[in-house]
Write a structure and sequence with these properties.
The protein has about 200 residues and is an alpha/beta fold. The protein has one domain: Class I glutamine amidotransferase (GATase) domain (Rossmann fold). The protein is built from six helices and 14 strands. It is globular and about 35 Å long. The longest helix is centred in the first third of the chain and has 12 residues, at about 20-30. The strands form four sheets. The protein has a seven-stranded mixed beta sheet with strand order 6-3-1-7-8-12-11, with helices on both faces. Helix 1 crosses helix 6 and helix 3 packs across helix 4 (about 115-120). It has helices spanning about 20-30, 80-85, 90-100, 115-120, 135-140, 165-175; strands at about 10, 15-20, 35-40, 45-50, 55-60, 60-65, 75, 105-110, 125-130, 145, 150-155, 155-160, 190, 195-199.
């Protein structure tokens, strides 16, 4: 398994995120050596859900208003209906998400999470998957939607639902280990952590 030592990953969530879509990928990232930080508009603690029921609360490491994409190497966006539905109307959340795409940093998103990507304006022309109810929204935003357990394109990893988490985690760690994606026109892939170039 690739190592993610010295990699700093932001996990952006609002109240109502699907708990397992945060805890399982976070565990996989930490086991691979990554430093994960929960970024949220919630104060002090953010509420997870198990489908339609409240689950556990988690400590917020970085307030969204104080978060800077330059401080992180990669981004994880869990799903849950209420979570991305809140984030997609928050300018600070959209700018935070957009900063990862502008810098070519890897992003992993699952279930309803792509709603936030739509409003951030970063899905046009991209291959992606999601929970089925998000399919039409993604297509209308110009994305190339497919019904697969995991889809990877240019550093963006996406999956449909909790059952896909094992495949999602494998590809997320693989992509996160590669570092920053190629900038337009460069034809090379540069890791911001090591300076290594991948063609």
């Amino acid at each position: 398994m690739p190592t993610l030592s010295e990699l700093k990953v932001a996990i952006l969530v609002a109240d109502g995120f699907e708990q397992v879509e945060m805890t399982e990928p976070r565990k996989a990232l930490q086991e691979a050596g990554a430093d994960t930080r929960i970024v949220s508009p919630a104060k002090n603690e953010v509420q997870g859900w198990n489908h339609f029921d409240k689950a556990d609360k988690f400590k917020v490491d970085v307030a969204l208003d104080d978060a800077d994409g330059n401080d992180f190497d990669a981004l994880l966006l869990p799903g849950g209906v209420a979570n991305p539905d809140q984030l997609r109307v928050m300018p600070t959340a959209l700018e935070f998400v957009r900063s990862f795409f502008q810098a070519g940093k890897p992003v992993a998103v699952i279930c309803h999470g792509p709603w936030t990507l739509i409003d951030a304006g970063v899905v046009k022309g991209r291959a992606i998957t999601s929970w089925p109810s998000v399919k039409t929204d993604l297509i209308n935003a110009g994305a190339k939607w497919t019904d697969n357990e995991v889809v990877v394109e240019s550093g963006l990893v996406s999956s449909r639902k909790p059952d896909d988490i094992p495949a999602f985690n494998r590809k997320m760690i693989e992509e996160f280990s590669k570092g920053a994606a190629p900038r337009p026109g460069t034809g090379a892939r540069t890791s911001e952590r090591t300076g290594a170039v991948r063609h």
